[in-house]
Design brief:
The complex is a heterodimer. Chain A is of the alpha+beta class. Chain A folds into two domains: 8-223, Metalloenzyme, LuxS/M16 peptidase-like (Cytochrome Bc1 Complex, Chain A, domain 1, 2-Layer Sandwich); 247-426, Cytochrome Bc1 Complex, Chain A, domain 1, CATH 3.30.830.10. Chain A is built from 15 helices and twelve strands. Chain A has a seven-stranded mixed sheet, with helices on both faces. In chain A, strands 8-12-9-11-10 form a five-stranded mixed sheet, with helices on both faces. In chain B, β9 (295-300) and β10 form a beta hairpin. In chain B, α3 packs across α8, α6 (116-134) packs antiparallel against α8 and α11 crosses α14 (341-358). The N and C termini of chain B lie far apart (57 Å). Chain B has a six-stranded mixed sheet with strand order 1-2-6-3-5-4, sandwiched between helices. The chains are: A alpha+beta, B alpha+beta. At the A-B interface, α2, β6, α4, α10 and α12 of A face α4, β5, α6, α12 and α14 of B.
Chain lengths: 428, 420
């Protein structure tokens, strides 16, 4: 008798997560976790705002909104719209769009887990959105954009990214420009959907209190019938040219406070230097005892300091942001931040600082894995960065760091040529 | 599974309640604790909030830097905050470090140094935060509504940003010291711990480490409940804002213990479910009419006082009038016809089932257990309250909404840049 290959092929198991592949190219990640009687499901599409063409910024995000409208089997006409259908079972659900990915996720009581598989499979190729749906949703998205414009930190970040990047779409915020949001068309969004929303461009993650055989049955039942894309998923090509000199930008705004940010070019999350950069950022601004906390906040120069070290698919920026204390200019804050980054690049870090950073990062990891709903979204970010094992192996990579590797990263990345400085000057 | 069995409780040796939910595997614990205090005891927001923040600025034995280095060495987080009626702390650490973190909590509560130098710096920080709050449309709408619906002295009535700035400017170390001396009462402790720990181990650690906390006689000052009254309206104009925050609501004069509370809560969920997308406001004002990104209705301020029924939404200035009218339309429709049997059933089911998904993490278990205990409720409330929700009828829900959401009693506050 001829042996039939199973539709769902196991690829490997890493960090307690099993990876499978369906014949249509859908990657499936599965982890059994019986801590709570719930199941979390997340579909990550490997498309984000980095994939948008000029003139169509914000498309990925508007499409995410439209994919909560009617689909073939979940629609208002049959009384099964996405939200009310899943929420009746106690599901918590949502979706988010970010630079490298779009994800749709829900957590449900385990006895209703199949509903999430059915909904996500239908969303994948069965969406029915039309012009009328876009007409009402465009103003919803525009209000989301407007709410963001109320936030001075978002305004400054937008300015900074547009200065730090000249070519790469990371320079445009994921929500897009107002003109592009208002100018979007259902036909264009349908084209975007038909280009990127295919099983071979997606990862399905299933974490929670569900047996492996049942998970396999539900994946095959709901997803195996969906065909792979009839075309190759378009490769992403823009490459940001190397930054050769320092850049700066400034804006004036009625914010109540002035804000300063300083950013440095860093590589993609999968790069071998990323863990050292992350530890360096923690030492500079990530903990109670960090250098910028001590020199800026504890000395009364700033109200707060924060740092972002994006774990993105492509090279990006490490950004320190600080809010000026009354009477302190943002230029002064830039000067102080610059002094600290230069000091650390020149003199290096101490082993005590590295030890504290390691403890803080390890502890933050446990927060990210608290409950399957958090863990599945953590894995989704790894998928977006190009390696779903990213968050799991990250802790091991951090534990293996030495002062030498962190000092080398400081010298390599905290350079004047790679710097972008941004200030928001309060006009009140 | 019941929450009564998942979350175990013991009395602490020094008085107060300890609640522990064991979630094995993470080697970490999430801690939410508090003692009676907050704005009600302090008398104003600046004193309560600055006092909470000053606790990590140094003790008789440790400088601020010592505390910071200690927490980072452990990889632990610890923060203090003041609510209307509690001085609260939130922490996260490895299970093996629970004792060290609790020791630090006890030390800062018992031997806080309240150093003048750090107070000067902290006041600058607060000044900046209040400057941001002054430009924050949501915060200003919320403050505005609370001042329209709650009377002077009510714990849910917010101080204005300008008022908080003025009391902050006048605040001295002596004020903090005097307040601190009367603010710590171990008998009012509520401590919820969730994570990789047993009840016995947690009880042992807490009793040992908090043994030195003073027992006091803290009693929060009383207040008069809010009365419903004819709606009033306020607008706060803020420059250069692209979106307006709008809040609409009425004081109910009832607490969570009132017989009408479950029906009111379900009614507000039907009108504008805060935790999902199935409420009427989301389905109509957002999904159908496209007037807003965010809108919900919810019971507000029912922790340990009489609360309000509140609706919140954001609108572009040019859609503001349309948005307000759409909210009024939906409120009137629901009041006139009441909820349908089908939507009542949907929202009853949703509420009961959601408990399970919303408590599927250690952080959520600690936070929820602490909130319930601080409100003086038994943990079994998590099991019994959904049963009361499941028993509600459309008529009961309609009656509660008509009583507490009467259009003539709805006050509103908006903040943003208004269209000319």
């Amino acid at each position: 008798m001829k042996k039939v290959a199973p539709a769902l092929q196991k690829v490997r198991t890493r960090h307690g997560v099993a990876e499978y592949r369906l014949e249509n190219g859908l990657r499936v990640l599965y982890k059994r976790d019986m801590t709570a009687p719930v199941v979390a499901v997340c579909v990550t599409f490997h498309v984000g705002s980095r994939n948008e063409a000029a003139g169509h910024t914000g498309s990925t995000h508007i499409l995410e909104h439209l994919l909560f409208k009617d689909s073939e089997h979940f629609n208002k006409a049959n009384g099964k719209s996405f939200f009310s259908y899943l929420e009746q079972f106690g599901a918590q659900l949502n979706a988010t769009t970010w630079v490298d990915r779009t994800n749709y996720f829900e957590v449900l009581p385990k006895e209703h887990a199949e509903e999430a598989f059915a909904v996500e499979a239908d969303r994948l190729r069965g969406s029915l959105f039309n012009d009328a749906d876009l007409a009402s949703e465009m103003t919803v998205v525009r209000n989301e954009y407007e709410r963001g414009r109320n936030n001075p930190y978002e305004l400054l970040e937008e300015e900074l990214m547009q200065t730090a990047f000249t070519v790469h779409p990371y320079r445009i915020p994921t929500i897009g420009t107002k003109e592009d949001i208002e100018g979007s068309t259902a036909a264009k969004l349908r084209e975007f959907y038909d280009t990127y929303y295919w099983p071979n461009n997606a990862t399905l993650a299933v974490f929670g209190d569900i047996e492996p055989a049942e998970m396999e049955r539900l994946v095959v039942k709901h997803f195996a019938k969906i065909p792979r894309s009839p075309h190759e998923i378009p490769p992403f090509t823009p490459v940001e040219p190397a930054q050769k000199t320092a850049r700066a930008c400034s804006l004036k705004h009625a914010a109540g406070v002035s804000i300063a940010s300083i950013a440095y070019k860093i590589p993609e999350a999968r790069h071998g230097d990323y863990p050292a950069i992350y530890a360096l950022a923690t030492i500079l601004a990530g903990g109670f005892s960090s250098r910028l906390q001590e020199k800026l906040v504890d000395k009364g120069m700033a109200a707060d300091v924060s740092v972002m070290v994006p774990a993105w698919h492509d090279p990006t920026v490490l950004t320190f942001t600080t809010t000026a204390a009354p009477g302190v200019t943002p230029q002064k804050l830039l000067e102080l931040m610059r002094r600290e980054t230069r000091n650390v690049a020149r003199d290096g870090i101490s082993s005590a600082e590295l030890s504290r950073a390691k403890a803080r990062i390890a502890s933050a990891g446990s927060l990210e894995r608290d409950g399957v709903f958090n863990e599945i979204r953590m894995v989704s970010e790894g998928v977006a960065a190009g390696d779903w094992t990213f968050a799991y192996r990250f802790e091991d990579d951090i534990a293996a760091l030495t002062t030498r590797t962190v000092n080398a990263a400081a010298k390599k990345y905290l350079t004047a040529a790679g710097e972008t400085a941004a200030t928001l000057i309060d006009t009140l | 599974m019941t929450y009564q069995t998942l979350i175990k409780e013991k009395k602490l040796n020094r008085g107060g309640r300890l609640l522990v939910a064991r979630v094995p595997g993470s080697k970490h614990v999430w801690i939410d604790g508090s003692i009676a205090g907050g704005v009600r005891l302090a008398g104003n927001r600046a004193l309560a909030e600055v006092h909470a923040a000053m606790l990590l600025e140094g003790t008789a034995k440790k400088t601020k830097r010592d505390i910071q280095v200690l927490l980072d060495k452990l990889g632990a987080s610890l923060s203090f905050s003041a609510s209307a009626d509690r001085l609260a702390w939130h922490a996260h650490c490895r299970t093996q470090d629970l004792g060290a973190v609790l020791s630090l909590v006890a030390e800062v509560l018992h031997e806080s140094a309240l150093p003048t130098k750090e107070l000067t710096t902290l006041k600058k920080r607060f000044e900046a935060e209040l400057a941001l709050e002054g430009q924050n449309t949501r915060a200003q709408a919320q403050i505005g509504l609370s001042r329209l619906i709650y009377p002077e002295g009510h714990p849910n009535r917010d101080e204005t940003t300008a008022g908080a700035l003025a009391t902050l400017a006048a605040l001295t170390r002596n004020d903090l010291k005097k307040y601190h001396e009367r603010a710590v009462d171990a008998t009012t402790t509520v401590l919820a711990i969730a994570g990789d720990i047993t009840l016995a181990a947690a009880k042992d650690a807490v009793d040992k480490k908090l043994a030195r906390l003073p027992r006091g006689t803290v009693t929060l000052p009383g207040f008069a409940p809010a009365q419903s009254h004819a709606g009033e309206h306020a607008e706060t104009s803020i420059k250069d804002k692209a979106s307006i925050d709008y809040m609409l609501g009425a004081a109910t004069g009832i607490t969570k213990d009132h017989a009408d509370y479950p029906a009111l809560m379900l009614g507000l969920q039907i009108l504008g479910d805060r935790n999902g997308f199935s409420g009427r406001l989301m389905q109509t004002v957002r999904e159908r009419d496209g007037l807003t990104y965010a809108i919900y209705s919810t019971p507000n301020g029912f922790g340990t006082a009489d609360g309000a029924a509140v609706i919140w939404a954001t609108f572009a200035p040019q859609l503001f009038e349309k948005g307000k009218a759409a909210i009024v339309r939906e409120v009137n429709l629901l009041l006139e016809n009441g909820p349908t049997a089908a939507e009542t059933k949907l929202h009853r089911q949703m509420y009961a089932a959601r408990i399970q998904t919303s408590l599927a993490s250690a952080a959520a278990l600690a936070r929820t257990a602490h909130t319930l205990a601080a409100e003086g409720r038994p943990i079994g409330y998590l099991d019994t309250f959904p049963q009361r929700i499941l028993a509600l009828t459309p008529a009961q829900v309609a009656k509660a909404l008509r009583t507490y959401l009467a259009p003539e009693n709805l006050s509103s506050a908006a903040a943003g840049t208004f269209a000319p």
